[in-house]
Give the backbone structure.
Amino acid sequence: MIKKTYNKIVALISGMTDKAVQELLQNMQKSLDYCMEENRVLKEELHEKYGVKRLRLSDSQKRRLAVKGIALNKHILSQITTIFQPETILGWHRALVAKKYKCSEAGSSEKGRKTVSQEIIDEVLRLAKRNPEWGYDRIKGVMEYLGLEVGRTTIKRILQDHGIVPDPELKRRIRWKEFLKSHLEVMAATDFISVELLTPRGLVRCMILFFIDIQTRMVELGGVKINPDGRWMKQVARNQVDCIDGFLKDKRYLVCDRGSLYTKDFENILKSSGVKIKRT
């Protein structure tokens, strides 16, 4: 199930060949397998050398794991976690949130953080969920406009404890899923495939450069060459951004891999016509 999901996402983003997608998925799975095995080894080492049978984590450590864990469902957690049970990780989140915002008993003389009202918590969560592109400062400004005094640190803490952890650069960089959804009609992808041709001299490998419209799935042949080089790629770029019949004349983004043939000159020609390269 996980591999099929990754397959769809990667194919959608980059228009990669089946072979390239399969190789990427295999590398991702190998990386995951290594991390899981490394966790098992560390757990065994702690048990054998120090007699540690059960790890005791701080609230901060539990919170860090819980925030990552609630982004996954219980089925996926059960496949990847090697130290803690999925129910334990998800339970930490519920317990930590309840503990942090539990009101002190009447007459208690304990010192600590000022209790945050449920009204403020609900309003912060509502603003964050309805406006995922907003940062902490933007939410703080709206809260002040509504007459609710709350600090930036408190807003950050509320969102983290409820599993909402905005990207530090979210104002400048949108997540891929949102980016694709809002730019499908102006996005294309490109890649190379190789074909063996039988000639009087024997088999010759030709490289085929193609472009694909992400929204319509229409495919355009960019060119065929035995040994493509920078000069050839520059001419392909000029053809694709031609103001009359260029395949990329109405596009704003081109997705490609980090191959050396996508040279700076190739990128500059596209950029001069309003097409920005997004590398995978």
The chain has a mean pLDDT of 78. Residues 230 and 261 are 6 Å apart (CA to CA). The radius of gyration is 26 Å.
